[in-house]
């Protein structure tokens, strides 16, 4: 009987999500940027002109480029220079990721703090890029996008499953439990599955969908996936350091399978590695990215 209720809730939620796909409109800027970047004759000036039309987007790109964790060694003061130093493809990925996050922005209430969620998402994005590079993985742009979007399912729940989301937050705050179990109890789906559902609908790369779907338990992914492991590690780091964490990640369990995937020898080595980022994480939250 309980299994039947779960399946019915899952089916109902998936049907609702199918309709969500048509609701958020991708910005005109993102569409123009994508079109330009698909054209081999595109130059920096034309791309900069399009991005410059959206002041909010321009400000975010410059803030990301100059953030302590993003790791650029030179001050970036113009979009032209940002495009040159970051690169066309990485700029496109940043624009797509920021647009997706904006698509599901909603007003804060007692159950969902938009600012706290934004800070956690952006910190995870920039930190994933930095940690990937520090560990020798050349997937900086992909790591940024995966880190930024890993919890996309949470604002989607808040916006489109408001009653269920309120029940989820209440139950999670009252008893010590796994957030994924609580979400599945009320929706038949968890926020990983919702994020994965949407990235598939939007035809985003499979490796990004995989990272979102398995970021709480990377060892359960079909293959040992570095991107998924990085997102899990950084998510855990925010809780471990108590810097930029998100409330629904409270009590997150570290998947020790990540150690082998990322080439970290032991939990002792991991603890030292995490602690080495404390100042960087703190400086990041105090940077222009969050002002």
Summary of the model, kept short:
This protein is an all-alpha fold.
Explain what the structure shows:
The protein is mainly α and 291 residues long. It folds into 2 domains: 2-21 and 106-290, Hypothetical protein af1432; 25-103, no CATH class. It is built from 17 helices and no strands. Helix 2 (28-37) packs antiparallel against helix 3. The chain is globular, with a radius of gyration of 19 Å. 41% of the residues are buried. The mean pLDDT is 88.
Shape assignment:
globular
Please indicate the percent range of residues in DSSP E strands (runs of 2 or more).
under 5%
Helical content (DSSP H or I, runs of 4+): 55-70%
- What do we call the CATH homologous superfamily of the largest domain? Hypothetical protein af1432
Q: Give Rg in angstroms.
A: 19 Å
Number of helices: 17
Termini Cα gap: 50 Å
If you average the pLDDT, what whole number results?
88
> What class would the helix/strand composition place it in?
mainly alpha
Low-confidence stretches: none
Count of separate structural domains: 2
- Quick one: CATH class of the largest domain? Mainly Alpha
Using the coordinates shown, work out and report the CATH topology of the largest domain: Hypothetical protein af1432
What is the CATH architecture term of the largest domain? Orthogonal Bundle
For the largest beta-sheet, the strand count, sense and barrel status come to:
none
Question: How would you spell out the order of helices and strands?
Answer: HHHHHHHHHHHHHHHHH
Number of strands: 0
């Amino acid at each position: 009987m309980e299994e039947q209720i779960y399946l019915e809730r899952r089916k109902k939620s998936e049907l609702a999500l199918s309709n969500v796909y048509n609701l958020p409109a991708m910005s005109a800027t993102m569409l123009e940027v994508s079109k330009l970047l698909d054209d081999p004759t595109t130059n920096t000036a034309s791309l900069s002109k399009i991005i410059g039309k959206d002041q909010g987007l321009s400000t975010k790109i410059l803030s990301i480029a100059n953030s302590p964790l993003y790791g650029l060694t030179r001050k970036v003061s113009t979009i032209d220079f940002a495009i040159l130093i970051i690169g066309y493809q990485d700029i496109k990925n940043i624009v797509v990721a920021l647009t997706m996050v904006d698509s599901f922005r909603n007003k804060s209430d007692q159950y969902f703090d938009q600012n706290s969620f934004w800070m956690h998402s952006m910190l995870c994005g920039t930190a994933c890029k930095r940690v990937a590079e520090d560990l020798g993985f050349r997937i900086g742009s992909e790591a940024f996008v995966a880190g930024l979007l890993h919890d996309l399912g949470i604002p989607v729940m808040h916006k489109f499953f408001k009653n269920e989301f309120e029940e989820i937050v209440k139950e999670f705050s009252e008893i010590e439990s796994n957030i994924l179990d609580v979400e599945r109890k009320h929706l038949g789906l968890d926020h990983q599955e919702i994020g994965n559902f949407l990235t598939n609908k939007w035809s985003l790369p499979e490796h990004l969908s995989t990272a979102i779907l398995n970021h709480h338990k990377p060892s359960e992914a079909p293959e040992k996936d570095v991107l998924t492991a990085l997102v899990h590690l950084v998510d855990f780091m925010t809780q471990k350091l108590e810097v930029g964490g998100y409330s629904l990640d409270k009590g997150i369990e570290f998947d020790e399978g990540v150690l082998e995937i990322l080439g970290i020898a032991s939990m002792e080595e991991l603890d030292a590695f995490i602690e080495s980022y404390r100042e960087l994480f703190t400086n990041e939250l105090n940077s222009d990215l969050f002002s």
